[in-house]
Amino acid sequence: MNRFLFVLPLLTLAILAGFFGWSLLSGRDPASIGSVMVGRSAPTLPGQLGEGLIKAGKPVLVNFFASWCAPCLAEHPMFERLKSREGATIIGIAWKDKPEATRAWLQRLGDPFTRLGFDQDGKIALDWGLSGVPETYLIDAQGIVRLHFRGPITERDLGTILPLLRGGS
Question: Can you tell me the distance from the alpha carbon of 56 to that of 141, in angstroms, rounded to the nearest whole number?
Answer without folding.
Answer: 6
